[in-house]
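Cross-posting from the chemistry board since nobody answered there.

I work mostly on the small-molecule side, so proteins are not my area. We synthesized zinc ion and want a rough idea of how it might sit in this target. Sequence and SMILES are below. Is it possible to get a predicted 3D structure of the two together?
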Amino acid sequence: MRLKVLGAYGSEGPGQRPSAFLVDDRVLVDAGTVGGVLSAPEQIAIEHAVLSHAHLDHTVGLAFLVDTLAMIAPERCVTACSIGPVIDALRVHAFNDVLWPNFTAIPSRSEPVLRFRALPEDAEARVGDLWVTPILVDHAVAAAGFIVHDGETGFVYSGDTGPTVRLWQAAREMRGLKALVVETAFPNRLDALARASGHLTPAMLGREMAKMPPDVPIWVFHVKPQLYEETAEELAQIDPARIHILEQGKTYSL
Ligand SMILES: [Zn+2]
Ligand SMILES: [Zn+2]
């Protein structure tokens, strides 16, 4: 399994893009940025977008991806997959013909460039060539983390979350787990903001590690670009052998 980091950050800065990952060229895991990185042929190859929650830094790339499809490959379709409340939010608040066109009716309702698919919580679903299990996490809005597996190996993706339990339980029961892809948004001095908004600081990540399966590499994403250096220094003090900040543009093999 190959995991390409399209965007590694929890917001936008010069050259720093919101969170998005591409698995084996076909499946997006979050879509904070897509067209800013991938060529049109690479975008057209995408078949599914697994979305942790509706926040813009995880979904705005989907808006432009389907716009690309509608213009140059209207016979193609990307299916956006998530838990029901996230799909509802995207329908009502984003692809609603107000904020952005309803691409589930473009070019036609029978063969659109965008489809939505609600995935049941805690159940494995087939998404392209992968298996995806959504697990509810603890964020400011309805949000899921995911177990992503290709039948042999896989990773756990936290999406945006504060301290949580069920995702790490599921991770401990998983076979072939190669990495925990975990958010950390703010430096330790913004602990109150992290708690209010449902995010982790490095110190909180350190405490979450007690609940995670041991010895599995922790790949951090979603650091706020405005506070990157400060947060990265604090992350480096926890467990440098195990914690690695994901590098944008790089492809990781699992
Ligand atoms: Zn986010
Ligand atoms: Zn969020």
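Reply from a structural biologist on the board:
Welcome over. Reading the output above for you: DSSP finds seven helices and 14 strands in the chain. The radius of gyration is 17 Å. Happy to explain the token format if needed.
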